[in-house]
Amino acid sequence: MAGVLNSAAAPVFRPLSPFKPTNKRAFTVKLSAQSSETPIASTSLSTKEEPSGPSITPPPNFKPPKPKPFSIRPDKVFDILGASLALIFRLGTGALVSGYSASFVPKNEIPPDQYALEVAGFKVKESSKLGPRPEKPIEIYEFESCPFCRKVREIVAVLDLDVLFYPCPRNGPNFRPKVAQMGGKQQFPYMMFISLDVFLVLVRVVVDIYKRQVDVCDGNVPLLLSLGLLTTLTEGFAMIGRMGKGSSYTPSKLPAKPLEIWAYEPSPFCKVVREVLVELELPHILHSCARGSPKRQQLYKKAGHFQVPYLEDPNTGVQMFESAEIVEYLRATYAV
To answer: What's the Cα-to-Cα distance from 245 to each of 17, 299, 327, rounded to whole Å?
Structure first.
């Protein structure tokens, strides 16, 4: 993996305020491995900071579905099975946050207003060892079917980070060209941040660049993220079941505000939703909530129920569970 440090240009779409800097230096880290993308010359963009366009409204008579117990809608069985192959090839990497531990306790030991998985009359008490988290979402330009991007998304889940993703599908008119402008070529993933403290938190992601250890989680890079070529190969094999989904642009309306999705990388239900977010080039804030994440309790408190994926669309006011219905909502609302 090769990395380059250079000055950061303002992103093309910045609905959020930047990180609170702890010093005056600014960094851009370009996370990349050998890419098949052809370098292109930097070009100027006419995209505005706050894009304007047609108003965004939900489909007529739309009503968010109620969350259901674990089930797969009959017409989505093959989608979920294909997305589940990643669990086999990657052995669930990203399903647990750093330093995860769990134990079974009697039901009455955990208050009813606290999220906990219930199994055979007991509840699972979960804990983790997480280091400092950035105050604001990190900004990453990437796309779903790239194995190098998946590697970064897995460490995002392990470190329990929130990320503002700018999807860069092939032929996408907005964010893929912006990466070429900032970095001189289209190569992914591409990560931006402005605080040195955030750099120290995220050095885990670029550990292959710096060849050093920083104790930002429990001091260890997960095994399946530290095997070099084998890691890259298994990341690629993990995507076989989806046959390139999440890689090509579908014409869409660009929202004024990023959508928010509560999800985590290994979940096949979250995967099919993320694919559509990328294909429609919809900027979205990922609230990563792998097992052991305190964000599971945050979502439980917010929605009265924990289940992922969970979508919040500030452009329409829609909040909803159920992956199949989320996919249909996104296409009906944003595809043109």
So the answer is: 31, 28, 13
Query: How many angstroms separate the CA atoms of 290 and 267, rounded?
Result: 9
- Give CA–CA dist 208/221, Å, rounded: 11
Q: Which of 204, 198, 169, 191 is nearest to 282 (CA)?
A: 169
pTM to 2 decimal places: 0.79
Q: What is the dihedral of CA 322, 327, 331, 333, to 10 degrees?
A: 20
Classify the phi-psi angles of 301: left when phi > 0, otherwise alpha if psi is within -120 to 50, otherwise beta. alpha
Does residue 222 surpass a pLDDT of 90? no
Q: What is the pLDDT of residues 225-256, one digit of tens each?
A: 889 899 999 999 999 999 889 999 999 999 99
**Nearest partner of 159 among 136, 134, 142, judged by Cα:** 134
How far apart CA 155 and CA 265 sit, in angstroms, is 9
Q: Is 248 exposed, middle or buried (0-12, 13-18, 19+ CB in 10 A)?
A: middle
- Contact (CB, 8 A) for 274 and 261: yes
- With contact defined as beta carbons under 8 Å apart, do 124 and 103 qualify? yes
Least confident of 31-40, 110-119, 236-245, 276-285: 31-40
Q: How far apart are CA 191 and CA 142, in angstroms?
A: 9
H-state helical runs in the chain: 77-89, 147-158, 175-183, 196-202, 207-210, 229-237, 268-279, 295-303, 323-334
Q: In 3-state terms, what secondary structure has residue 320?
A: strand
